[in-house]
């Protein structure tokens, strides 16, 4: 098998004195969509924040295309090609959609052009002059993803992209993820919404109490349903 695009080994992390991740291993290969499942508080968001270096108190190995990210300063990590879309979305609410799309810095070749963004997100094209504050939750989520696509990041880290969104918008986000997969994008997704996750993921990891307790491919999902029901309380 080829070298993973993203490889995490033995990751531990702390909030102050509180030890939250206890040795997390995970790999994402180029072109894969991988979903991290787990109950509230299992450590999914903390895993993403530790990979991004937002949470600094951590130990272990984090590599992107073999390159060590652990010791890089925070402002260099995005430039290594990791594109993080946080749960709180991080768009500029005082700026228009179009302005939000003009601002992201280019971190690598292959960032989406404005035309490509507006083609992938027709609703953003319609709202291009609307201020961030005027957007619906779904539009904000689309804009947050679109901003990362503009940078040329070679892996997208999405933290609960469907959180608080109406079912029809969740479907639209699913369509976007499938379109990105078709373009060969690599995606690591944290998701509470299992019904959504199972429609987009190629592979799953399951977390519990800061540990990775299982991993399996989408075609192995049926056989895992009983244990997943128990772990996730589905
Ligand atoms: P959720 O869906 O609720 O975000 P999660 O799996 O993403 O769940 P995390 O947010 O990573 O879980 O939380 C893991 C643990 O770390 C939990 O016990 C949580 O209470 C704790 N935690 C999260 N954020 C902080 C913080 N800023 N300070 C201290 N403890 C925190």
Write up what this structure looks like.
There is one protein chain. This protein is an alpha/beta fold. The protein has a single domain, classed as P-loop containing nucleotide triphosphate hydrolases (Rossmann fold, 3-Layer(aba) Sandwich), CATH 3.40.50.300. It contains nine helices and ten strands. The strands form two sheets. The chain has a six-stranded mixed β-sheet with strand order 6-7-8-3-9-10, sandwiched between helices. A four-stranded antiparallel β-sheet has the order 2-1-4-5, with helices on one face. Strand 4 and strand 5 form a beta hairpin. The longest helix is centred in the last third of the chain and has 16 residues. The chain starts with 5 loop residues before the first strand and ends with a helix. The relative contact order is 0.18. The model has no long low-confidence stretch (mean pLDDT 92). The site of adenosine-5'-triphosphate has 12 residues, from strand 2 and helix 1.
Task: Please tag this protein with its features.
binds adenosine-5'-triphosphate, 234 residues, globular, alpha/beta, four-stranded antiparallel beta sheet, P-loop_NTPase, single chain, Rossmann fold, 9 helices, ATP binding, six-stranded mixed beta sheet
Rg to the nearest angstrom?
Answer: 17 Å
Just name the CATH architecture.
Answer: 3-Layer(aba) Sandwich
Q: What name goes with the CATH superfamily?
A: P-loop containing nucleotide triphosphate hydrolases
* H/E element sequence: EEEHEEHEHHHHEHEHEEH
Task: Name the helicity range.
Answer: 25-40%
What small molecules does the structure contain?
adenosine-5'-triphosphate
Counting DSSP E segments of at least 2 residues, the number of strands comes to 10
Name the structural class.
alpha/beta
Order of strands across the main sheet: 6-7-8-3-9-10
The DSSP helix count reads 9
Instruction: Give unreliable regions as ranges.
Output: none
What composes the largest sheet? 6 strands, mixed
């Amino acid at each position: 098998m080829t070298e993973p695009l993203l490889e995490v080994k033995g990751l531990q992390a702390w909030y102050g004195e509180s030890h939250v991740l206890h040795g997390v291993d995970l790999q994402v290969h180029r072109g894969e969509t991988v979903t991290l499942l787990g109950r509230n508080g299992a450590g999914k968001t903390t895993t993403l924040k530790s990979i991004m270096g937002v949470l600094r108190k951590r130990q272990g190995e984090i590599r992107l295309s073999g390159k060590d990210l652990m010791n890089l300063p925070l402002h260099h990590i995005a430039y290594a090609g990791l594109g993080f879309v946080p749960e709180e979305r991080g768009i500029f609410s005082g700026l228009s959609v179009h302005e939000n799309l003009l601002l992201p810095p280019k971190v690598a070749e292959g960032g989406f052009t404005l035309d490509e963004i507006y083609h992938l997100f027709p609703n953003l094209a319609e709202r291009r002059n609307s201020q961030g504050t005027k957007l619906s939750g779904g539009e904000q989520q689309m804009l947050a993803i679109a901003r990362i696509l503009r940078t040329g990041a070679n892996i997208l880290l999405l933290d609960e992209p469907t959180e608080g969104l109406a079912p029809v918008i969740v479907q639209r986000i699913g369509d976007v993820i499938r379109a990105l997969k078709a373009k060969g994008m690599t995606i690591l997704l944290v998701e509470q919404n299992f019904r959504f996750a199972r429609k987009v993921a190629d592979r799953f990891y399951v977390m519990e109490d800061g540990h990775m307790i299982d991993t399996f491919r989408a075609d192995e999902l049926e056989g895992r349903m009983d244990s997943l029901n128990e772990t996730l309380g589905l």
